[in-house]
Amino acid sequence: VSPDYSRQGVASALLNTLLRQLPERAYTVEASITAKPFFARHGFTVMQPQEVTARGEQFLNYLMRRQIDPTYSA
Fold first, then answer.
1. Which of 23, 37, 61, 62 could be joined to 69 by an S-S link, Cβ 3.0–4.6 Å?
2. What is the largest CA-CA distance in the chain?
C-alpha cells in the first residue's frame, strides 16, 4: 500500500476481501518485522522466524499461516 494511504485500512480491506472470497483456504505469508503485527491481527500465527537475503542484505522475517476459517462450510 502506498505510504500516502497507510493507516487508512486499505491493506486490511484488501486482505479481508481475499479471505471472504476464499474462506476454505489456509494462507501462508512471509511477513517482515513491520508486517508481522498486521498479519497477527488478521489471524495469522508465526510458524517460524527465518533469515532471508534480498539485494545482498540479510533480513529477519516470519513465515506465518492462517488456518481455514472454522466457520466455513461447503
1. 23
2. 45
